[in-house]
Automatic annotation (TrEMBL), chain A:
Keyword Nucleotide-binding annotated: yes
Pfam family, one: Ras
Entry keyword set: Nucleotide-binding
Family matches, as InterPro entries: P-loop_NTPase (IPR027417), Small_GTP-bd (IPR005225), Small_GTPase (IPR001806)
Highest classification ranks of the organism: Eukaryota, Fungi, Dikarya, Ascomycota, Pezizomycotina
Name listed for the protein in its UniProt record: Rab5-like GTPase
Listed SMART domains: RAB, RAN, RAS, RHO
PANTHER family with a match to the protein in the record: PTHR47978
Keyword Nucleotide-binding in annotation: yes
Originating species: Apiospora phragmitis
From TrEMBL, chain B:
Identification of the protein by name: GTPase activating protein (Gyp2)
Residue ranges of every copy of the Rab-GAP TBC domain listed in the record: 252-424
Residues covered by region (Disordered): 741-766, 790-892, 996-1094
Bias (Polar residues): 880-890, 1061-1081
Compositional bias segments (type: Basic and acidic residues): 1034-1044
Bias (Low complexity): 741-755
Organism in which the protein naturally occurs: Apiospora phragmitis
UniProt xrefs under Pfam families: RabGAP-TBC (PF00566)
InterPro entries reported in the protein's UniProt record: EF-hand-dom_pair, Rab-GAP-TBC_dom, Rab-GAP_TBC_sf, Rab_GAP_TBC_domain
PANTHER family: RAB GTPASE-ACTIVATING PROTEIN 1-LIKE, TBC1 DOMAIN FAMILY MEMBER 2B
Biased composition (Acidic residues): 825-846
Length: 248, 1094
């Protein structure tokens, strides 16, 4: 995907931030995307890591400036520093860990309230390689949808029996993603499944109007606001959702 | 079938106790002797966090290896039951008892029987109690039958608690499994074919033999016996201690089980085993300095694990923070485990305080400090950063957090560490500044944080290169970039000293903490769940502030009081190294949200304080210290600022705020909000609770809510006791006046006439409103009893039809219509009795009744205008009284405890809606009485804001020059209330009074001895001084009094009369005392009246 020597297509940079519980594979996704590599024991991210990668679309080139944040709960208060002015966000959960989806939902809510308006959010369930469903990521087989039930199942070690560690069904996450107007993918950073697709989809979802070759302070804010009308699909419903979930 | 009491001889009673898997005391059982739960904990060696919640007699059956059942439960839940089990609470996390299923059985002999299936499948199935063990083999399940022998209500409560406990424990089952897997007993009972894995560690003895000759010790035989016992009675977490258990132990434990049994019986099983931090540590062990071979080996990882885990236990407030793994891994390259442990402690406590705390305030603060240093020393660069909107801390934060270990090649990072340890944290700043200085040129070209970062990344990767590659001077050329960095750091920035840093830290501290707190607040509020939507964002914000302010304040006070005690004890107390400063603040800010984990649980006392800051009614009536509105300056989110000021009030148990009241209503509210039965409230609980009262804004909802507060067993009925308590609560809530929109009382002509009759100082509307409310409450009691359904079958249709017609006629006469209504009620009661004899009707009242009663209610609703009759000239009262006296005897039938009755929600609703004031109370007054956002206006407590019987009738404008007039109102209003109560429900009133007296005894000590008040009013003993003189020799009043005397017996009456004429407040109080002493003995209605009149 990263043939940086592409034709002189218009190029613009997009700030993207990764959020999610610790050890769900945020850094691994980025590493896969940027270097097409996978490390079994990746050092935990301290604060945040910064990487860039280009993504070529038919009509333009998008340069992702990726902020890969630390996942541990106590780093959460640092997050605003990183998602400030971000035009896209990848909220990652581990589909073998029910709690990570709860955390992901919190992040989505926070982004919808606090981040730049019009931010493109993708919900990504990682570690697909640990489930039975291989490539096509067929529908979830899993137990009850609600977190509690899932938690109980996790406690019951139910996963071991079938060799399928999946605890969060595709449907559950997908339904949620649709409610909140999020892009949704299930990926495996280990095998590389669906990883570049996530980034490409994000690149496509970023409205043309909010793209600029340089990103000045506050510029993206203003621009994304300006772009609202064109992105009825994405921002319209989300705007509503944000209002609903607005708690303070 | 065992009887529990046999099983547990040492337990205090035959009791089955449910232990709360969540921690905390249970105030639900506040009436219980606390020593009991302590005893219980000792008995089973439970951590203090686990208290028995309920106690209920029960019988327990443990099938002994009966037919195996292989059903696997769908519900996995943690449950912990006390008594026979030795529940092993595992770890800090609420230990799930492992019941996999709880069923309710049909049982002939008992009302309730529970079957508990545990998830400890064992080759043989058998278990008692609710023990369950987890066993992957899942061969059989333990199944225990418990038959509850308590009353139905107790059983239901128990089951309810059990349900909650189970639900709460669900999440922990997984953790417990892990813990249990390390138990030797698990291994022992595993079928042979599954014994593949290594046996769990049972001590060094496994490798180097256990002392003694196993044969002589008969180890095998013992093991066999134990295996059998464990099979039958559960193991580790689910072990049931039967008498055999103790016998088996006395003959000596087998070697391999010895350790586990020690752990179990000593109570250490529950502690230590795991914590959240440990999970987090495990996640990172494999990824700490992975490039260093030592940390790819078991040895290295093991050391790292031990150091981090040990520290997280020792300092649970810090626990584990990512980056600690990297730092410790680096340390471990050079030092031993124990050295690393102490070095880590030094780091966290002194060198980089707050860096790794849960809020990481230290890190954030130092980022701010660093930024201001950059601004000071490199203004051009700083300006550029600002212009380019680059946030410096995105770059520098990892430097500080990992002490550069993560940023530089290790060799260089260690050189920084060398200096860091000797010169302190300032080194981190110096190095950081030097890095920016050296790269200044390039950084000035960078226009966004991406470019900024890549410049520095490049720099770090070339640290070993020559700093001056092109220099002619070979010596100069030999200097690498790192050396250059060190020179710049310590030469150019030598001006940066410890005190520079310290000053800047102090300067920025508040801003940083406020930021963190705002963030925490935002996050917390956002995650509050659907109920929070019922409240406005402002309200939520205010609730949040109030919640944490109270907790914070309380912690402060505790702390200060503690310090004070220590100081007095002249104990030299080594002041804990203060996080921020040389100036000792005695850790006064401990508990501040921004500083990391603080209490986030509100106990009952804090809850009272919480309410007292919002609601007038929640303030105690004792003379309070002047209230300072601490909330005023918190609006900007700086709700802590006020507490930093020296505060003389801090030593009082309630700080600067008003002393909160204590009332049964508040306890009920607390319990209602405490949905998890943890005896503490989380922010979520509080928000949900408030949302239910304030959020829905519809009267039916509020009425239902109120009703449910008093419907203890949730069966939709409130009994006589409950009705009394509701009325008490209504009085309690209204004693400082009502708020919200109340219809103007001027609409009532009779009232205005009345007030004029009182003379020039007619009580203003507010006063009469409250008067009226008191009347409404008494009418409420009456109506409740009137319309209550007897627990016995009854004929309700008759009831309804008979009740309606006469009312209309009577109300015309401006006679208190309620009396007439009551008269009817009386008759009904008798009829009900007859009905009872006549036939056994269905227990539930027929539907038609329900339909009819509202119509009755409507008629009644038309009456409230008459209620002010309470305050009417006494002559009328007299008439009324004579009538009522005659009726009061009949009334007793309704009040006869042998004639149990209850009120259903529809009845309650009807009774409330029948009264305009009550309706308004539920519609607006009660919800608005919780001033969430704006708090209470600074009430000057010396002005009598209480509407009690004593102050009642006095103008709200307080400063009454002529007490006489107010006395008029007071007496009359009081009289009205009393009349009604006496008339209708002398017994009720007696009970109300008795209870109030109990509650009040304590408060009374504060009051001037002679200032006792009458009747319910004793509840509120904060009496404005003016009111004391309020009982003047008002002729009217006296005349009433004397007319009442007819009703009174001898001496008491005379005392009352004569004293009354003296016109002093005592005149009234004395009789009260006199009569109160005979309350219990008073048998005839007449005597009872004495009490109320006094």
């Amino acid at each position: 995907m990263a043939d940086s020597a592409g034709a002189p297509r218009p190029s613009s940079s997009v700030k993207l931030v990764l959020l999610g519980e610790a050890a769900v594979g945020k850094s691994s996704l980025v590493l896969r995307f940027v270097n097409n590599d996978f490390q079994e024991n990746k050092e935990p991210t301290i604060g945040a890591a910064f990487l860039t990668q280009k993504c070529n679309l038919p009509t333009r080139t998008i340069k992702f400036e990726i902020w890969d944040t630390a996942g541990q709960e106590r780093f959460a208060s640092l997050a605003p520093m990183y998602y400030r002015n971000a035009q896209a966000a990848l909220v990652v959960y581990d589909l073998t860990k029910p709690t990570s989806l709860i955390k992901a939902k919190h992040w989505v809510a926070e982004l919808q309230r606090q981040a730049s308006p019009g931010i493109v959010i993708a919900l990504v369930g990682n570690k697909l390689d640990l489930t039975n469903a291989s490539a096509a990521a067929a529908g979830g087989n899993s137990e009850d949808e609600d977190e509690e039930g899932g938690g109980g199942a996790a406690g019951g070690d139910g996963g071991d029996e079938s060799g399928d560690a999946r605890k969060i069904s595709t449907d559950e996450a997908k339904t949620y993603a649709e409610e909140e107007s999020l892009l949704f993918f299930e990926t495996s950073a280990k095998t590389g499944h669906n990883v570049s697709e996530v980034f490409t989809a994000i690149a496509n979802a970023i409205p043309e109007t909010s793209l600029k070759s340089t990103r000045g302070p506050g510029a993206s804010n203003a621009v994304s606001r300006g772009g609202d009308e064109q992105r009825v699909n994405l921002t319209g419903p989300r705007g509503d959702a944000a209002k609903d979930s607005c708690a303070c | 079938m065992f009887n529990i009491s046999n099983l547990v001889q040492k337990a205090q009673s035959a009791a089955q106790q449910l232990i709360d898997p969540m921690q905390g005391l249970n105030l639900t059982n506040s009436d219980r002797n606390p020593a009991k739960s302590t005893l219980f904990q000792h008995q089973f060696r439970l951590p203090s966090s686990q208290t028995p919640l309920y106690e209920i007699p029960a019988e327990l059956t443990i099938p002994l290896r009966t037919s195996p059942k292989a059903t696997r439960s769908a519900i996995e839940a943690g449950i912990m039951l006390g008594s026979c089990t030795c529940p092993r609470p595992t770890c800090a996390s609420p230990p799930p008892r492992q019941a996999s299923r709880v069923e309710r059985l049909n049982s002939q002999s008992f009302q309730f029987a529970l079957a508990i299936t545990t998830w400890n499948g064992i080759p043989q199935e058998a278990s008692k109690d609710k023990d369950a063990q987890k066993d992957k083999s899942q061969i059989r399940e333990q199944r225990i039958t418990i038959q509850l022998a308590g009353t139905r209500q107790a059983c239901e409560r128990f089951c309810d608690g059990l349900k909650k406990g189970l639900r709460g424990g669900v999440g922990n089952v997984g953790k417990l499994k892990k813990v249990v897997a390390e138990c030797y007993s698990e291994y022992l009972l595993r079928p042979e074919d599954k014994k593949t894995a290594n046996p769990p560690d049972a001590g060094l003895g496994m490798m180097f033999k256990y002392p003694g000759d196993p044969k002589k010790l008969r180890d095998r035989a013992k093991m066999r016996l134990w295996a059998e016992y464990l099979r039958d009675n559960g193991r580790n977490a689910t072990l049931i201690r039967q008498p055999t258990f103790h016998k088996l132990i006395r003959v000596g434990l087998p070697n391999r089980l010895r350790g586990e049994m020690w752990e179990l019986t000593s109570g250490s099983f529950s502690r230590a085993r795991s914590s959240l931090a440990i999970d987090e540590i495990e996640k990172d062990l494999n990824r700490s300095l992975p490039e260093y071979p030592g940390f790819q080996s078991e040895e290295g990882i093991g050391r790292l694990r031990r150091v981090l885990t040990a520290y997280s236990w020792v300092n649970p407030e810090v626990g584990y923070c990512q980056a600690m793994n990297i730092v410790v891994a680096a340390l471990l390259i050079y030092i031993s485990e124990s050295q690393a442990f102490f070095l880590l402690s030094a780091l966290c406590d002194r060198l980089v305080p707050g860096y790794y705390s849960t809020t990481m305030y230290g890190t954030l603060l130092d980022q701010k400090v660093f930024e201001s240093l950059v601004e000071k020393t490199m203004p051009i660069l700083w300006e550029h950063l600002v212009k380019a909107d680059v946030q410096l801390s995105v770059v520098s934060l990892p430097w500080f957090l990992s002490l550069y270990i993560n940023s530089m090649p290790l060799v260089f990072a260690f050189r920084v560490l060398d200096v860091f340890f000797v010169e302190g944290p300032k080194v981190l700043f110096q190095v950081g500044l030097a890095i920016l200085r050296i790269n200044g040129e390039e950084l000035l070209d960078a226009t966004d944080d991406g470019a900024f970062i890549s410049v520095l990344k490049g720099y770090f990767s070339r640290l070993d290169e020559s700093a001056h590659p092109k220099s002619e001077n070979p010596k100069l050329r030999a200097i690498n970039r790192f050396q250059e960095l060190m020179v710049v750091a310590f030469k150019e920035f030598s001006g940066i000293t410890h005190s520079t840093i310290q000053d800047l830290r102090l300067k920025n501290k508040d801003a940083v903490l406020n930021n963190i707190e705002n963030f925490a607040k935002r996050t917390a509020i956002r995650n509050l769940g659907p109920d929070s939507k019922l409240l406005s964002p402002e309200e939520l914000g205010a609730v949040y502030d109030r919640f944490y302010t109270i907790l914070y304040e309380r912690q402060q006070r505790d702390h200060i009081i503690q310090e004070e005690t220590l100081r007095r004890a002249k104990t030299a107390r080594p002041s804990a190294a203060s996080a921020f400063s040389d100036h000792q603040d005695h850790g006064v800010e401990k508990g501040r949200v921004g500083l990391g984990p603080s209490t986030s649980l509100m106990d009952y006392d804090a809850f009272r304080e919480f309410l007292a800051a919002m609601s007038k009614w929640a303030i105690a009536d004792s003379p309070a210290t002047p209230r300072r509105d601490t909330f005023a300056d918190k609006d900007q989110g700086q709700y802590f600022s006020s507490f930093r000021k020296p505060n003389n009030n801090l030593l009082s148990p309630w700080g600067s705020g008003p002393e909160p009241a204590e009332h049964e209503f508040m306890q009920r509210l607390f319990r209602r909000w405490d949905v998890d039965s943890t005896s503490t409230l989380t922010l979520q609980n509080v928000v949900t609770g408030l949302a239910q009262i304030k959020g829905r804004r519809d009267i039916m909802g509020t009425i239902t809510y109120f009703f449910e507060l008093y419907d203890d067993d949730g069966d939709g009925k409130v009994d006589r006791e409950g009705i009394l308590r509701i009325s008490e609560a209504l009085l309690f809530l209204s004693r400082r006046g009502l708020e919200g929109t109340l219809s103007a009382s001027s609409s009532n002509p009779s009232l205005s006439t009345l007030t004029e009759a009182n003379g020039p100082m007619s009580p203003p509307i507010g006063g009469t409103m409250n008067e009226r409310f008191l009347g409404s409450v008494s009418a409420f009691i009456r109506r409740c009893f009137e319309y209550a359904d007897p627990d016995h079958p009854s004929n309700h249709i008759q009831h309804a039809t008979k009740a309606t017609p006469p009312k209309t006629t009577e109300s015309d006469e401006n006679q208190a219509p309620d009396d007439s209504a009551f008269a009817i009620g009386d008759d009904e009661d008798e009829e009900d009795e007859e009905d009872l004899l006549a036939f056994d009707g269905p227990e539930e009242s027929p539907q038609e009744t329900r339909k009819e009663s509202p119509s009755a209610a409507k008629k009644k609703a038309a009456l409230p205008s008459n209620l002010p009759a309470l305050g009417k000239p006494d002559t009328e009262n007299e008439t009324q009284r004579s009538v009522s006296k005659a009726q009061s005897e009949k009334a007793n039938v309704a009040l006869d405890p042998s004639n149990p009755l209850h009120m259903t929600l529809p009845t309650f609703r009807m009774v409330v809606l029948a009264d305009e004031l009550l309706e308004q109370f539920f519609e607006s007054s009660f919800p608005t009485s919780l001033h969430v956002t704006e708090g209470l206006p600074s009430v000057n407590p010396s002005t009598p804001s209480l509407t009690t019987f004593s102050s009642f009738g006095r103008s709200a404008a307080s400063s009454l020059p002529i007490p006489q007039a107010s006395a008029n109102g007071a007496t009359r209003g009081l009289r009205g209330v009393l009349d009604n109560i006496v008339t209708d429900a002398s017994r009720v009133a007696a009970e109300v009074r008795r209870r109030m007296e109990e509650a009040q005894r304590e408060l009374e000590q504060n009051a001037v001895p002679g200032q006792k008040d009458e009747e319910e009013d004793e509840d509120e003993d904060l009496r404005a001084p003016q009111s004391a003189g309020g009982y003047g020799g008002d002729a009217e009043r006296r005349s009433v009094r004397s007319s009442d005397l007819d009703l009174l017996d001898g001496a008491d009456a005379e005392a009352g009369a004569s004293k009354g004429q003296e016109g002093s407040s005592q005149s009234i109080l004395k009789p009260t005392e006199a009569t109160s002493s005979q309350t219990g003995a008073a048998d005839t209605p007449a005597q009872r009246i004495v009490e109320f009149e006094g």
